[in-house]
Automatic annotation (TrEMBL):
<dbReference type="Pfam" id="PF13565">
    <property type="entry name" value="HTH_32"/>
</dbReference>
<dbReference type="InterPro" id="IPR009057">
    <property type="entry name" value="Homeodomain-like_sf"/>
</dbReference>
<feature type="region of interest" description="Disordered">
    <location>
        <begin position="42"/>
        <end position="68"/>
    </location>
</feature>
<dbReference type="InterPro" id="IPR036397">
    <property type="entry name" value="RNaseH_sf"/>
</dbReference>
<dbReference type="GO" id="GO:0003676">
    <property type="term" value="F:nucleic acid binding"/>
</dbReference>
<feature type="compositionally biased region" description="Basic and acidic residues">
    <location>
        <begin position="42"/>
        <end position="53"/>
    </location>
</feature>
<protein>
    <submittedName>
        <fullName>Uncharacterized protein</fullName>
    </submittedName>
</protein>
<feature type="compositionally biased region" description="Polar residues">
    <location>
        <begin position="59"/>
        <end position="68"/>
    </location>
</feature>
<dbReference type="GO" id="GO:0005634">
    <property type="term" value="C:nucleus"/>
</dbReference>
Amino acid sequence: MKPSEIQRGSIISFHRVGRTNAQRARQLHICKQTVSRWLQRHKDTRNLTDKPRTGRPPCTTSEQDQQIRSAVEKNPLTTSLRIIEHQNLWKPHLTEANIEKRLEYALEFCEKPAIFWENVVFLDEKTFYSTDRRATKVWRKNGTR
């Protein structure tokens, strides 16, 4: 677990008053390597903030993010799928190549005789319920209830 900004500042303060890394680590309930790493980073950069992290870039714009927040504020019981549909954020997973392959497959098998289909096993079964069996979720800001 990474130390909080207060703990990072304490690491530097304890260093200035002459405490050892082991003493600092014990007092802050963190490991010695963490103390050493933050001391080195402070020495190199004079900074105690986290470095920017790499990761997947956002797939929505700030305007879309605001629209999503507004939708949730209007109806906290809405689902993510409803928001996606309402905001036109959903994109089909089929490419032109997928569509062409499916059409070729359908055309190849559409003329098969009934006897052919008696030996085909369909594995894409789906169960349907007449009631909503999912848990109700509510969107809330942190710290509100």
